Structure formats: structure tokens, C-alpha cells
């Protein structure tokens, strides 16, 4: 099957690629033509499609194609997009029997996608659906999908039945079954790109959270050091605590590991963290003692 082009939508490109890939067996081509007529019938006796490649495919599968022509008509609902119509031969007007061969069932499934299917892959995820014109077509396609792949989900939309898949595995499995390998490769690329973006977002968010935590911790450490310096004095601290307090004042933005490398001798990140914990505990004690002293002094002053 020809590769998907960069122009147009994923659904249109997939249909165009499938329309250029004729089944090898004659009975499979017959099953494909029957499916196109059954699922693509938009009026009593006309096959209609918006894809010129699909119209040419159906025309090429007809035995009496010389007596019929592809007509370009204006769709009342989709006035901006042309619609291509082909008059159905009489043998396609009656409901077709269910195919016995598995390859014919796959050909019918391909025809259903070409006639009434669509495919998308965007920010909201993956979506492959079939919009059926009648309850009979909906029931037949549901049975066909159930026999070849998995049970589809369903919904009513503008009085029409819609069968659809949203899971990546279900969508790609169905596309592989009908031979839309170019679309499968495209969806694999889309998923890989999404996963890469998600990993990048997680890393960025994690780094931002780590930076915020480190900044908040550094601010808390500096406040504790300032309180100790004002009330007690850094020179009275043990050497290790005095050293890390002075390093934090001189290097307010460095990490614990970077401060540890500046120590003499160098200290581990865990050791630096323990020293800051000791400083915060000591600062909390000083704050409490200073508060009690201030309240006592205020009480004596008021008594006088």
C-alpha cells in the first residue's frame, strides 16, 4: 500500500491509500464492491462518497462500468465539499448475504471503512468510527466486527448509529486487519511523540518542583542563620555549624551537594542536611527563649 501523504487528514489519506490497493482474489474484489454498495448507499440507488479515489475504486469494481459514470454532485449537508455519485447496478440493490470466507469478511470490513468510516488521532486521543445509515447496516457491521476483532462501542448521532473504537490497540488492530499499514505507522509515530512530550513534561514539572523545594529550604535556612546571628552570634557555634552557616550566607543559591564540596574537609549531602537541621532546631529554641524573655521584660516594665 502506498505511504500516507502529508496533505489532507489522516482519515482521507488512509482511504486514498486503501483505495489504490485492490485485493488479489476475484471473490475478495466482489465482496469489496458489495460492501461499498451496501455501506455507501446514501439514496435508493446511488453510491456516494466524498473521496474521488473511493469513487474510482467502486467504479473500477463494477462489471458494467462502461454504462455508468462518476458524477460530481453538490451535497445538501456538506455544501463546501463535493460528493461523487455512481448509480448502483440492480444486483446491488438487495441486501447482500453474509460472506463465508474470512478474507471476504475482511474485504467487507475494508469496504465499510471506505464507505462510512473515519479515523482521527489528536490531542483527545485516537478515534475510529463507522456512521451507519440504517439499523440493518449497524447490526450487520457490529456482528462482522465482533467476529473479526472485538466488540465496538456504540452511540446514536443525529438518528444514525455510530460504532467506534478509542483504544490505541483496538484501532491499530482493526487498521492492520484491513491493510491500512501506513495509518498504523502514523499512529505509532503519534503515540511515540505523545509519550516523549509527556516524559518531557514530567521531567520539567519534577525539576520545577525540586527547584521550588530547594529554594524554600534555602530561604528557611537563611532565616534561621539570621536569627542565630542576631541573638546568639555565629562565632559561638561549633565549627561545623559555623562553617555551613557562613557558606549559606555567601552562596544563597547553591544546593546542599555544592555547599558540601566547599566545606573543609568536603562533606556529603546528608551531612550538610543534618547540620542545617541542627541550625533550625537551635534557631527555634532561641526564638522561644527570646520570646519568653521579651514577654517577661514587658511584664516588668508594665508593673513599674
Principal-axes shape call: rod-shaped
Low-confidence sequence ranges = 1-8
- Assembly state here? single chain
**What is the alpha-carbon Rg in Å?**
37 Å
CATH topology of the largest domain: Endonuclease I-creI
- The count of DSSP E runs of length 2 or more, i.e. the number of strands, is 7
Arithmetic mean pLDDT: 86
Strand content is: 5-15%
Question: Your description of this structure?
Answer:
The protein has helices at 10-19, 26-39, 52-61, 102-116, 135-148, 168-177, 181-231, 239-250, 256-262, 269-303, and strands at residues 46-49, 71-74, 82-87, 117-122, 125-132, 153-157, 160-165. It folds into 2 domains: 10-179, Homing endonucleases (Endonuclease I-creI, Roll), CATH 3.10.28.10; 214-290, no CATH class. The strands form 2 sheets. A 4-stranded antiparallel sheet has the order 4-5-7-6. A 3-stranded antiparallel sheet has the order 1-3-2. With 304 residues, the protein is an alpha+beta fold.
Can you describe this structure in just a few lines?
The protein has 304 residues and is an alpha+beta fold. The chain has 2 domains: 170 residues, Endonuclease I-creI, CATH 3.10.28; 77 residues, no CATH class.
Helix and strand arrangement:
Blueprint: H1 10-19, H2 26-39, E1 46-49, H3 52-61, E2 71-74, E3 82-87, H4 102-116, E4 117-122, E5 125-132, H5 135-148, E6 153-157, E7 160-165, H6 168-177, H7 181-231, H8 239-250, H9 256-262, H10 269-303
Antiparallel strand pairs: 1-3, 2-3, 4-5, 5-7, 6-7
Amino acid at each position: 500500500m502506498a505511504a500516507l501523504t502529508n496533505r489532507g487528514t489522516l482519515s482521507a489519506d488512509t482511504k486514498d491509500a486503501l483505495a489504490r490497493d485492490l485485493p488479489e482474489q476475484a471473490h475478495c474484489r466482489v465482496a469489496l464492491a458489495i460492501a461499498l454498495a451496501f455501506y455507501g448507499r446514501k439514496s435508493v440507488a446511488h453510491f456516494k462518497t466524498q473521496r474521488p479515489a473511493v469513487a474510482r475504486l467502486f467504479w473500477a469494481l463494477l462489471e458494467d462500468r462502461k454504462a455508468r459514470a462518476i458524477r460530481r454532485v453538490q451535497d445538501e449537508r456538506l455544501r463546501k465539499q463535493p460528493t461523487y455519485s455512481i448509480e448502483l447496478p440492480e444486483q446491488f440493490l438487495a441486501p447482500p448475504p453474509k460472506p463465508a470466507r474470512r478474507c471476504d469478511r475482511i474485504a467487507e470490513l475494508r469496504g465499510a471503512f471506505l464507505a462510512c468510516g473515519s479515523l482521527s488521532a489528536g490531542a483527545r486521543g485516537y478515534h475510529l468510527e463507522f456512521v451507519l445509515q440504517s439499523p440493518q447496516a449497524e447490526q450487520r457491521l457490529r456482528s462482522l466486527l465482533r467476529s473479526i476483532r472485538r466488540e465496538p462501542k456504540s452511540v446514536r448521532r443525529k438518528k444514525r448509529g455510530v460504532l467506534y473504537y478509542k483504544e490505541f490497540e483496538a484501532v491499530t488492530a482493526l487498521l492492520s486487519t484491513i491493510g491500512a499499514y501506513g495509518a498504523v505507522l502514523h499512529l505509532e509515530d503519534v503515540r511515540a511523540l505523545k509519550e516523549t512530550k509527556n516524559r518531557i513534561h514530567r521531567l520539567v514539572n519534577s525539576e520545577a518542583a525540586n527547584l521550588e523545594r530547594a529554594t524554600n529550604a534555602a530561604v528557611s535556612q537563611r532565616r534561621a542563620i539570621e536569627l542565630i546571628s542576631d541573638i546568639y552570634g555565629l562565632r559561638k557555634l561549633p565549627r561545623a555549624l559555623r562553617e555551613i552557616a557562613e557558606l549559606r550566607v555567601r552562596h544563597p543559591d547553591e544546593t546542599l551537594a555544592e555547599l558540601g564540596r566547599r566545606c573543609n574537609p568536603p562533606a556529603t549531602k546528608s551531612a550538610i542536611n543534618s547540620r542545617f537541621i541542627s541550625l533550625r532546631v537551635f534557631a527555634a529554641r532561641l526564638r522561644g527563649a527570646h520570646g519568653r524573655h521579651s514577654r517577661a521584660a514587658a511584664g516588668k516594665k508594665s508593673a513599674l
